[in-house]
Amino acid sequence: MHAWPASEVPALPGQGRDLRIHDTATGGRVTLAPGPVARLYVCGITPYDATHMGHAATYNAFDLVQRVWLDTKRQVHYVQNVTDVDDPLLERAVATGDDWTALAERETALFREDMTALRMLPPQHYIGAVEAIPGIVPLVERLRDSGAAYELEGDIYFSVESDPHFGGVSNLDAEAMRLLSAERGGDPERPGKKNPLDPMLWMAARDGEPSWDGGSLGRGRPGWHIECVAIALDHLGMGFDVQGGGSDLAFPHHEMGASHAQALTGEHPFAKAYVHAGMVALDGEKMSKSKGNLVFVSKVRRAGTDPAAIRLALLAHHYRADWEWTDQVLQDAVDRLARWRAAVSRPDGPPAEALLEELREALADDLDSPAALAAVDRWAAKQQAEGGTDEGAPGLVSRAVDALLGVAL
Ligand code: 5CA
Ligand code: ZN
Fold this sequence. Notes:
CATH superfamily of the largest domain: HUPs
Number of helices: 13
Mean pLDDT: 97
Bound molecules: 5'-O-(N-(L-cysteinyl)-sulfamoyl)adenosine, zinc ion
Number of strands: 14
Number of domains: 2
Distance between the termini: 31 Å
């Protein structure tokens, strides 16, 4: 699949800082030290509805990861998937009478537009589950042939007991895992499984559902976790720097993915850090396509809101926090954008070198975007109150806000 166009990232004077970020697996902060090419995998959308502010907040977090790395003069090798065949997508298509491929294509196109408008840097490889199937089949065959997977009435399940590290990403107890498995696409109640948590790797063809040639697996379609493993191993290999997603992906998705990869390669870890963004809520409940309590990026854009203001609304919250989208959150961002634009539109202003270092330090400190915004607020307030004589300052502030926060002033 094609991704979306990249907005330019201005070069900044001086040197960026290494990112210290919260890793779910260790439960603490790790200092990432990628090579000259940092490797990032971020789980993509299941395209059965438009991009909402929760999605946007999560992609914003990993856009910041890239911007911090780029500021250290590294390149970033970024891969993202699109879960363009899965139960919720097929169910939605049946419910609305849509063709499932048309639904997936339409919503993926809208996602690209939203990402472009929000100045999110695109992945170099943007890969759909359907196009990954030829790479998934041999992996499932290998897992089955090595004894890490087994057949149940034509479906193939992964055996979580085949991985000695199982549980090490999300660090949850057995009861919590069982509850989340049932909630998030698993089938712990199905009789005949070796362990109730075992996830499906390959689902044998069902009547009325799409299916593909699975070689010795028979016709069917891939499970969810193996999709991301196949794509990540193909394009990044084991031991890449960060796997990212919202906190609802820690278990089972990232836990199972890590286990699949470990069983396939005998290596550990799959990702050096597992990074999870908090959940955005509306009216007190997590925004989710299944509940329908959504604020869509595209709708807010169509209502005339500058995408830069949407981005500032996201940045005003720490990526690990759970927070609530409200009209006031957006209004505050619109006001902030206006203040910042007025401040950089003058020919000169207070010196901004210290601000650049504050921005770098805030973001390197577990992507503390609220602290970054506060630093720019202080510069803008000083500009408004006293002005300044540094002719390079407004330009430097614009470039720094663009390069590090993805906001065009
Ligand atoms: N296709 C899979 C990942 S392989 C998937 O989870 N798709 S999704 O469309 O449901 O979610 C896409 C991303 O948005 C995931 O990282 C998910 O954790 C995140 N996300 C979903 N809802 C919210 C929310 N309310 N707040 C923050 N992030 C969210
Ligand atoms: Zn994924």
